[in-house]
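To whoever is on call:

I kicked off a structure prediction for a single chain this morning and the downstream step that reads the tokens threw a length-mismatch warning. I double-checked the sequence; it's 253 residues and nothing unusual in it as far as I can see. Pasting both halves so you can look.
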Amino acid sequence: MTVDAVIITTPTGLHPRHARDAVSAGLHALVEFPLAAEPETTRKLFGEAEVRGLTLAVAHTSRFIWSFRRARSLLNEGAMGEVKAANFVRLMDRPPGTGAAGMSRTWTDDALVHHAGHVLDIYRFWFGDSVGLVGSVSPEGEQGRRNAGLLLEGPGSCPLACLMSYDARGSQLSVRLIAAKGDIEIDGFARLLVNGRVDATEDRPTDNDTAYREAIREQDRFFVEAAQSKRNFPVSAEEMTAVNELIWHSRLS
């Protein structure tokens, strides 16, 4: 049996090495988010993959989630007017040594690098090159970075904030965008409100699990098609590199 492509879902700290091993072996690779490599390493990895004609992609899963894509459309259409501020809150009850849904494993994600990294990615997805990091706070203890706060600036220097915690006694994912012509609120992955009213877009998933599973399926489909040379992966190497640099610098701020 010939192996043409791999999906890398190892602990975050191993992503750069395993991505490099895959490219060196001539394999297409989809790497679990984030790549979390030093910026120069990231550029070299994507450059080597391009030279070899390989698809190297990072799982920017949030960009395929219905509610985040819909918010981007509303912003791009100009329906909301100038963005004034945005806030993203993600709270989880994730004890050390557990993963999603409480499954046991030998490591715990990094709240700053992993989950806050997804927020950095979404802000880039919505606002592009206008996003800049102002600062981050994420105390590192014996169990790693379990809580994180970030402040960024977006278009027109508007404030973009993020609060992330693994120490909550429940779960919450909520986003609020405040704009000149109204507000966008996202509750979980599936529910989006515009000016307090549920968005009427048809064929949207009605629950969070379905919204997430559909995003994973679409992301994986694009990766397979890119590896088979049918189309480019929707997130360019340049954009994946830019997001990775934001994540990398957030660790140093």
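Update from on-call: the warning came from a stale cache, not from the record. Cleared it. Sanity check on the structure: The longest helix spans residues 208-227.
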